[in-house]
Design brief:
- By secondary structure, this protein is α/β, with parallel strands linked by helices.
- It has 2 domains: 145 residues, Aspartate Aminotransferase, domain 1, CATH 3.90.1150.10; 246 residues, 3-Layer(aba) Sandwich (Aspartate Aminotransferase, domain 2).
- Helices cover 37% and strands 17% of the residues.
- The protein is built from 14 helices and 15 strands.
- A 7-stranded mixed β-sheet has the order 4-10-9-8-7-5-6, with helices on both faces. A 4-stranded mixed β-sheet has the order 1-2-3-13.
- Helix 9 links the parallel strand 7 and strand 8.
- Helix 3 packs antiparallel against helix 11 and helix 12 packs parallel to helix 14.
- Bound molecules: pyridoxal-5'-phosphate (PLP).
- The site of pyridoxal-5'-phosphate (PLP) has 15 residues, from helix 5.
């Protein structure tokens, strides 16, 4: 059996991959088993911002793997503290809690805000409410899908966790109206990535900060995908000059090499966790922390955030210049761009399949949006190459 047949027979089919079998990656490039080369415009949903097998990350990974990888947090290590300090410094927040996947960070953020609700805001037991936005994507645990507005994510998986209140995305007054004395937090993505790279109105996040302050409610931002330079700033909230109370991070934090996520928050929230109240066997392991710290240094030292801002703006401009009846709209921020396709002319999936034939790997989201989110190390020449391929595919339609 070949690789596709093996997966087909032995793997649950919770994905529908493009028919390409990848065997090697280097920088922005990927190779399949037949030696064909592709430019990765997906970056594993933005987890590979540093490029595939980034040499600096491979080096520290190998060194640390040969020294000490996992001990659990039953002991101190010399690697978690430095990463925690760095994350607090770059975010402006006070304390962190390490986990592995994004969904775990979200679950941890939910716990943190509920703890604060009971211990500080004095919400009656089991009454805490969290306001979330329609079109959200925060992960795939049963609690998280329970407050998704996507029926596809929920179908067959109930019953769901109580205590979430869904309101339209981008609508501050809807959130203001939904707040009750039992509301502990508002949790949103500053840009909805899986929702189709949807940007809220200009002042949304800043207004949310004000509404949360006025009502003694925590603002929890899920920057698992938007963080670490993806939008042209270290964190997307910097575009709005505000600070959240709780920040959820993951994906690119692991340098495209390790699952590593984190919850960072203000001291008055994070200090409420006590020994035994939360945990993770792999969370904060020295191997992941070593890679994570180096990944943050690379972002700064190699100017990847500036690159994202500059080349993202350039690519978006160039895409908007393309005159094609198949394109409805181009939107995004930094190197995080969604091209909205008119499905009556071509489906986003078909568009991605055609791009694949030209050596560009992308991914549709919600049938109508093709996303472009390359590693942040991409060069202008490589973007021009991709643009050429996109123009070619559009001309063929
Ligand atoms: C990917 C993602 C998650 C979930 O992360 P996993 O590592 O897949 O669990 C949560 N929130 C946002 C905004 C994401 O993009």
């Amino acid at each position: 059996m070949n690789a596709i047949e093996l997966e087909g027979k032995y793997c649950a089919k919770n994905y529908l991959p493009l028919p390409v079998v990848l065997v090697r990656g280097e920088g922005v490039w990927l190779w399949d088993e037949d030696g064909n080369k592709y430019l990765d415009m997906m970056s594993a949903y933005s987890a590979v911002s540093h490029g595939h097998s980034n040499p600096r990350l491979v080096k520290v990974f190998q060194e640390q793997a040969g020294k000490l990888a996992i001990v659990s947090r039953a002991y101190y290590t010399n690697k978690l503290g430095p990463l925690a300090k760095k994350l607090c410094e770059i975010s402006g927040l006070d304390m962190m809690l390490p986990m592995n996947t994004g969904a775990e960070a979200v679950e941890t953020g939910i716990k943190a805000s509920r703890l604060w609700g009971y211990k500080v805001k004095n919400i009656p037991e089991n009454k805490a409410e969290i306001i979330v936005a329609e079109g959200n994507f925060h992960g795939r645990t049963t609690t998280i899908i329970g407050f998704s507005s996507e029926k596809e994510y929920q179908d067959g998986f109930g019953p769901f966790t109580a205590g979430f209140n869904l309101v339209p995305y981008g609508d501050v007054s809807a959130i203001e109206k939904a707040i009750t004395p039992n509301t502990c937090a508002v949790m949103v993505e500053p840009i909805q990535g899986e929702g189709g790279i949807k940007l809220p109105s200009e002042n949304y996040i800043r207004e949310l900060r004000r509404v949360c302050d006025e009502n003694n409610v925590l603002l929890m931002l899920d920057e698992i995908q938007s963080g670490f330079g993806r939008t042209g700033k270290m964190f997307c909230f910097e575009h709005d000059n505000i600070l959240p109370d709780i920040l959820l991070l993951g994906k690119a934090l692991g340098g495209g090499m390790m699952p590593l996520s984190a919850v960072i928050g203000k001291k008055e929230v994070m200090e409420l966790f006590v020994p035994g109240s939360h945990g993770s066997t792999f969370g904060g392991n020295p191997l992941a922390c070593t890679v994570g710290l180096e990944a943050l240094k690379i972002l700064e030292e190699e100017n990847l955030i500036e690159n994202s801002a500059e080349l993202g703006a350039y690519m978006m401009d160039e895409l908007r210049k393309i005159n094609s009846p198949a394109i409805k709209k181009v939107r995004g921020r930094g190197l995080w761009i969604g091209v909205v396709i008119k499905p009556d002319i071509i489906t986003a999936r078909k568009f991605c399949e055609m791009l694949k034939e030209e050596g560009v790997l992308s991914k549709e989201t919600h049938e109508t949006v093709v996303r472009f989110a390359p590693p942040l190390i991409i060069t202008k020449e490589q973007i021009d190459w991709v643009l050429e391929k996109i123009r070619k595919v559009l001309a063929e339609i």
